[in-house]
Amino acid sequence: MRFRCKVVDVSCLNHFTRMVNTISKLTKACTLRLAPDKLYFILSDKVANGGVGMWCELFQPSLSSSSRIVTHDIPVGVIPRRLWIDFKEPSVPDFDVSIYLPALKTMKSIVERMKNLSNLVVIEANLNGEMNLKIETDLVSVTTHFKDLGNPPWVSEEGSQASTQDRDPESMVEARVDIRKLLQFLAGQQVNPSKAICNIVSGRIVHFILLHEDVSLQYFIPALA
């Protein structure tokens, strides 16, 4: 099937290319949903069954007279309308802790070193802006501490602070994840987000959110026992 797109300008094309390169590091195939003002890239693996999930939104600027047509043939398959419900936007999990991430390049460097020591990494954080990355094996225990990261001011639909604010600020919440999946997420980033957030549901899931101008990317990694 022929895929045809209209490019507004070179900067738009470069932006789109960076986004596609990021997604290609996370998955070899995904669902593309087209809307009048946005493009959606969706990876709907069942997180409950050990797969990762992804939801990425890319805003499309208004087309101008300087636009041009670019045609490229790629293998695609059309999803029947009856299956569209399987590709709806995921709901934000009822997390126990939400925290801003440190520089992704710093995290990537640390996780790369930890990967040589263990297949699993524990991510833990609290409401005092503290986050730890740690591995524990029979031979070694390594922990990297981050402080003063800050916690996003999530607000509930009723306008009050989210229930996480009732937790002890010093109490750590943790999830153990496959270190390869975490490194895959960190290594593929070309978004250079203005905000990077990590939400942790204790012992169940780690939910990452990257925000930058007209791009938002959500990534879900299931926790392991």
TrEMBL record:
GO biological process: double-strand break repair via homologous recombination; meiotic DNA integrity checkpoint signaling; mitotic DNA replication checkpoint signaling; mitotic intra-S DNA damage checkpoint signaling; nucleotide-excision repair; telomere maintenance
Keywords (A to Z) from UniProt: Nucleus
Region annotated Disordered, chain positions: 151-170
UniProt GO cellular component terms: checkpoint clamp complex; nucleolus; site of double-strand break
Span of the signal peptide: none
Pfam families xrefs: Hus1
Cell compartment(s), UniProt: Nucleus
InterPro entries referenced in this protein's UniProt entry, alphabetically: HUS1, HUS1/Mec3
Major localization listed first in the record, in broad terms: nucleus
Family per record: Belongs to the HUS1 family.
Designated name of the protein: Checkpoint protein
Species the sequence originates in: Latimeria chalumnae (Coelacanth)
GN (gene name): HUS1
